Q: What sequence folds into this?
């Protein structure tokens, strides 16, 4: 993972203005640390700081924003919105306990990560309820499988318009 992403981050940082934010999408603290050294600006953790205990400390030490995603893979679900709120509230607690500033926390409901089509659609329809957590929301629906299924089984390469629609609705 390090061998794949570090050269790309270095090249992007060299080619782009500093105002362009580069995110490292990983759940491994060692990868996040090297990516930040290479020029990444924020950490996007698809396990909401729950996979690698050192991840929260890296974000705190480096004073960078962190995106906490609700990952429902293997999670015993009951009602998807309350499950996501509970998952994200726990991740926020982990972030705050590690010293990550409240202002540096962004949440992601994790559409497409361990949810059924119906659950993905419910989350999309009820995004506003996540404002109860008081954090900015990242909506990551780009070319996800639920878009393909809704559009009759379209392949990833043909989901751009569907992605645009989910973002507009969000």
A:
């Amino acid at each position: 993972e390090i061998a794949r992403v570090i050269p790309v981050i270095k090249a992007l940082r060299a080619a782009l203005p500093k105002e362009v934010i580069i995110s490292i999408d990983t759940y491994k603290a060692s990868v996040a640390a090297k990516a930040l050294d290479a020029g990444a600006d924020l950490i996007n953790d698809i396990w909401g700081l729950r996979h690698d205990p050192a991840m929260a400390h890296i974000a705190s030490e480096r004073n960078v924003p962190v995106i906490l995603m609700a990952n429902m893979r293997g999670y015993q679900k009951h009602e998807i919105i309350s499950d996501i709120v509970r998952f994200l509230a726990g991740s926020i607690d982990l972030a705050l306990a590690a010293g990550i500033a409240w202002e540096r926390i962004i949440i992601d409901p994790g559409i497409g990560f361990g949810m059924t089509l119906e659950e993905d659609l419910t989350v999309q329809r009820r995004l506003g309820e996540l404002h109860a957590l008081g954090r900015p929301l990242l909506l990551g629906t780009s070319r996800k499988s639920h878009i393909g299924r809704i559009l009759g089984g379209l392949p990833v390469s043909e989901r751009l318009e569907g992605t645009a629609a989910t973002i507009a609705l969000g």
Observations:
- The helical segments are 2-15, 29-38, 54-62, 80-97, 117-125, 145-150, 160-169.
- The first helix runs from residue 2 to 15.
- The CA atoms of residues 143 and 159 lie 5 Å apart.
- The radius of gyration is 16 Å.
